[in-house]
Amino acid sequence: MSWFGNYIKSSIGAKHLMAITGLMLLGFVLAHMLGNLQIFMGQAAINAYAVKLQSLGVLLWIMRGGLVLAVLVHIYSAMRLVSMNSAARPVKYKMAFKDKSSFASRTMKWGGIILILFLIFHLVQLTLGGGPLKANFNLLDEYGRHDVYNMTVLGFQNVAVAASYLVAMLVLCFHLSHGVTSLFQSLGINHPKYNGMIKMAGPSIATLVLIGNCSMPIAVLAGWVKATV
Amino acid sequence: MSRTMNLTLNVWRQKDSKDSGEFEKYTEECKDISEHMSFLEMLDVVNERLIEKGKLPIAFDSDCREGICGTCSMVINGRPHGPWKKTTACQLHMREYKDGDVLYIEPWRAKSFPVLQDLMVDREALDSIVQAGGYISTNCGSAPDANSIQIGKEISDAAMDAAACIGCGACVAACPNSSAMLFTAAKLSHMNTLPQGKPEVAKRTIAMVEAMDKAGFGNCSNHLECEAACPKDIKATVIAEMNRGYAKASLLKR
Question: Scanning every residue of chain A, which has its alpha carbon at the shortest distance from the alpha carbon of B215?
Fold first, then answer.
């Protein structure tokens, strides 16, 4: 298996790990967003969806395990690449002109750090039921189901919480806009006929995720989606 | 009437690879520079004036001075080879600049390119990548018949686009990570695309990527600064080809 070890440890292998785990995480982000958007279909729909998700049992834990693994590998690989990259340029330029790199490409590291902090905050608040909004977490609806609808709406009525989500989603948008296009390049998915589409994939998917995810806190703050308790 | 200009140059001066180096400012030596001079001719004039004053001239690399050898190597105001697209420093002309301009001239900056003196760096690391697989194995003796190997126009064009690389190292200099992936990928695309290079594709790809990693270059973050700096307009699509080829060679070949 030394061939596999050599591959994974190589510069390109590290990029492939970033790309594949990034793709897994993108899949999660999209599925998570589509699930959550059911909040616009009302309390009954999203609470039923939550019950269905919880009832997946073993499958849910396999997905969770996969995600945790993807996050860990993504972070580990990023740390390895960042340290190799900074070691490769010990003396910086006095002047460094930026011709083609973007704000998004240059802030991948900082975006990643902000996103992992947000992820921890998000999990503590809405999956583990800790943090300042503990009361909302224990709500039950009329069928005795976990009241995801009101938990979310009441949570976002807190302007500070809503703002933190909006900021995090903006960071995610930049991270995805460079990351998604890059994963094609890293995996070598490249063809003159499709390169234009690949170039647009990152910014378009990122914008879609930004709009989709931000629509929820904005709708709550604007009073379009109201709590039922 | 030809225009002349007075410039202020801030040039990186470093005695040898052990010296820490610093910028030195020149104004007296950079007066009355003709717009018709190439950038290197301007430096030649500055050096003559430095020598007249009994000072050590600025060391910089140059050879053909017609943009094809890849020897000249300097970062001018943050851009390898200066502001002109698809142009080496030797082909950059002073008409780009105007009276009173302030320029910062630095060497390629990478751990794998130790500064030898001032603006000259050691680019043997690139040679080590080529030595690892930048060749094809073929019988020597008499030349084969012309056109005995048929190559499609698209294939030969793609190979020639990659083969335009002159190995100057501007991609490494421009990359925020000092990555040599554009260089390595250009060499790989050049040889892996052509039928003569096919038999050794997997071996070559692995050997050259390993040599690149061993030389201590950084990794590709897809900033595409290399593409902007490349005087021969090599496209980063070659890096995608290398990424795919390396996985294929590592995981699927015997």
Answer: A88
